[in-house]
Amino acid sequence: MPVLKAPWSERNGRFSPLKAIVFAALFAPAIYILWRFASGALQPKPVTEMIHHTGDWAARLILLSLLVTPLRKLGAWPKLIAVRRMVGVAAFAYAFAHLSLYVVDQSFNLVHVGAEIALRFYLTIGFVTLLGLGALTATSTDAMIRRLGGPRWNRLHKLIYLIAALALFHYYLQSKADVSGAVLLTGFYLMLMVYRFAIKRLPLWSAALASVALGVSLTALLEATWYTFRRHYPFWDVLGANFDAEMFPRPTFYLALVGAAAILVMVARNYRPRLSLAAAE
Ligand code: HEM
To answer: Do 117 and 140 meet the contact criterion of CB atoms below 8 Å apart?
Structure first.
């Protein structure tokens, strides 16, 4: 008979402060959204606002779950792995709340919801993303990991990279004129993807620098391409906006800032001062 463990317990049943803090923190956005709803701050369209907030958090949490592995290495925090599953499951919970709110918004008319998902491309993409997240959540239990076996489970869970890309695509497609929110999250995604590729080939320092530099540049290019094709803005003008003081701050600024902070953390956590011979004697 499998014993159910509390989310804040280690494998050996001991209390884990890290897991407890992350578990509580994952509820914070939901509590904040509900508090804003209850206080009337989401008027005049509270349900639409909640759809947007829960969608945002689902996408952010997917990216946060992808950040766990690099952060273990960059920040020399091996214990972080214990919270990756929790963050992934929370992403699914927010995505499910997002769909449920959409059902509420459509007056619980499930036939209409189904038809909209089938007919509107951005909703179809959202639905496929949700199914993918659901499959990963369902196979996240210890029993499922044992049943699938490590290598098969790992291969299946690599799908998270594709799922993250689909979530971002859904975000772009539903955006109106301004895609800054989607561009910002895409930037984090690209930085993580470059890091994943680079860390297998380069030393830690070079991989970290490459992921920030390439991630920011690729994001600027992608943003300019999107505006060119969707809005017919001149490509070079959009790219140039990244260097225009009047347009400050663009998403690339925040990406560079977070990238610089990550590099500082890496330096602080991985730097070991060499003792000079004189000091050692
Ligand atoms: C059946 C599944 C889904 C449905 C029906 C759905 C529906 C919607 C709708 C109606 C909007 C707002 C569009 C507007 O106001 O014009 C939206 C926005 C969004 N959705 Fe979804 N969605 C689904 C799945 C997902 C999933 C799985 C994710 C992420 C993991 C996600 C992330 C987002 C994001 C980030 C936004 C934009 C939020 C913002 O503008 O701040 N959605 N979705």
So the answer is: no
